[in-house]
Amino acid sequence: MCLAIPARIEEIEHEIAKCRVGEGETFIKASLTLLAEEVAVGDYLIVHAGFALRRLDANEAEETLRILRDIVQLMEPVDPSGLSG
Protein backbone atom coordinates (compact mmCIF):
# COMPACT_ATOMS: atom_id res chain seq x y z
CA MET A 1 0.00 0.00 0.00
CA CYS A 2 1.24 3.49 -0.81
CA LEU A 3 0.36 6.61 1.14
CA ALA A 4 0.57 10.22 0.09
CA ILE A 5 2.52 11.97 2.83
CA PRO A 6 3.11 15.58 3.87
CA ALA A 7 6.67 16.77 3.39
CA ARG A 8 8.35 20.17 3.93
CA ILE A 9 10.40 21.63 1.08
CA GLU A 10 14.05 22.15 2.09
CA GLU A 11 15.55 22.85 -1.37
CA ILE A 12 14.34 23.24 -4.95
CA GLU A 13 16.50 22.61 -8.00
CA HIS A 14 15.31 22.09 -11.59
CA GLU A 15 11.66 21.32 -10.68
CA ILE A 16 12.76 18.77 -8.05
CA ALA A 17 12.17 19.49 -4.37
CA LYS A 18 14.21 17.92 -1.59
CA CYS A 19 11.68 17.48 1.21
CA ARG A 20 11.86 16.54 4.89
CA VAL A 21 9.31 14.01 6.10
CA GLY A 22 8.18 14.58 9.69
CA GLU A 23 10.60 15.86 12.32
CA GLY A 24 13.39 13.38 11.64
CA GLU A 25 16.19 13.16 9.13
CA THR A 26 14.20 11.40 6.41
CA PHE A 27 14.32 13.21 3.07
CA ILE A 28 12.61 12.46 -0.22
CA LYS A 29 12.76 13.99 -3.67
CA ALA A 30 9.53 15.16 -5.27
CA SER A 31 8.93 16.29 -8.83
CA LEU A 32 7.08 19.60 -8.98
CA THR A 33 6.04 19.18 -12.62
CA LEU A 34 2.40 18.28 -11.83
CA LEU A 35 1.74 21.33 -9.63
CA ALA A 36 -0.30 24.19 -11.06
CA GLU A 37 0.70 26.51 -8.19
CA GLU A 38 4.05 28.03 -7.26
CA VAL A 39 5.79 26.65 -4.18
CA ALA A 40 8.81 27.77 -2.17
CA VAL A 41 11.26 26.47 0.41
CA GLY A 42 9.35 26.00 3.66
CA ASP A 43 6.06 25.05 2.00
CA TYR A 44 4.46 21.68 2.69
CA LEU A 45 3.46 19.32 -0.09
CA ILE A 46 1.47 16.12 -0.39
CA VAL A 47 3.87 13.70 -2.11
CA HIS A 48 2.93 10.38 -3.69
CA ALA A 49 5.15 8.11 -5.80
CA GLY A 50 7.77 10.84 -6.18
CA PHE A 51 5.37 13.57 -7.35
CA ALA A 52 4.09 16.58 -5.43
CA LEU A 53 0.31 16.51 -5.79
CA ARG A 54 -0.60 19.76 -4.03
CA ARG A 55 0.58 22.35 -1.53
CA LEU A 56 -0.68 22.16 2.08
CA ASP A 57 -0.88 24.93 4.62
CA ALA A 58 1.28 24.34 7.69
CA ASN A 59 -1.67 23.57 10.01
CA GLU A 60 -3.07 20.95 7.63
CA ALA A 61 0.37 19.36 7.24
CA GLU A 62 0.98 19.21 11.01
CA GLU A 63 -2.46 17.72 11.67
CA THR A 64 -1.92 15.07 8.98
CA LEU A 65 1.50 14.18 10.41
CA ARG A 66 -0.03 13.91 13.91
CA ILE A 67 -2.69 11.52 12.62
CA LEU A 68 -0.07 9.39 10.87
CA ARG A 69 2.02 9.25 14.09
CA ASP A 70 -1.07 8.14 16.01
CA ILE A 71 -1.76 5.38 13.48
CA VAL A 72 1.83 4.12 13.71
CA GLN A 73 1.63 4.12 17.51
CA LEU A 74 -1.58 2.07 17.40
CA MET A 75 0.11 -0.47 15.13
CA GLU A 76 3.01 -1.11 17.54
CA PRO A 77 2.97 -4.64 18.97
CA VAL A 78 1.54 -5.16 22.43
CA ASP A 79 3.60 -7.03 25.03
CA PRO A 80 1.32 -9.96 26.02
CA SER A 81 2.97 -10.24 29.46
CA GLY A 82 1.28 -6.98 30.42
CA LEU A 83 -2.20 -8.26 29.59
CA SER A 84 -4.42 -9.74 32.25
CA GLY A 85 -7.10 -12.15 31.43
Description:
It is a single chain. Strand 1 and strand 2 (16-21) form a beta hairpin. The mean pLDDT is 89. With 85 residues, the protein is of the alpha+beta class. The chain has a single domain (5-76), classed as Roll (SH3 type barrels). Helices cover 21% and strands 38% of the residues. The chain starts with a strand and ends in a 10-residue tail after the last helix. The longest helix has 18 residues, at 58-75. The protein has one helix spanning 58-75; strands at 5-13, 16-21, 26-31, 44-48, 51-56. One of its GO terms (biological process) is protein maturation. Belongs to the HupF/HypC family.
**Gross CATH architecture:** Roll
What is the CA-CA span between the terminal residues? Answer: 34 Å
Helix and strand composition category: alpha+beta
Provide the domain count. 1
Number of strands: 5
Coarse morphology: elongated
Low-confidence stretches: none
Radius of gyration: 16 Å
CATH topology, anyone? SH3 type barrels
Instruction: Output the number of helix runs.
Output: 1
* Strands ordered across the widest β-sheet: 3-2-1-4-5
Question: Strand share of the residues?
Answer: 35-45%
The SSE order reads EEEEEH
Q: Class, according to the CATH hierarchy?
A: Mainly Beta
Query: Would you tell me the overall average pLDDT?
Result: 89
Helix content: 10-25%
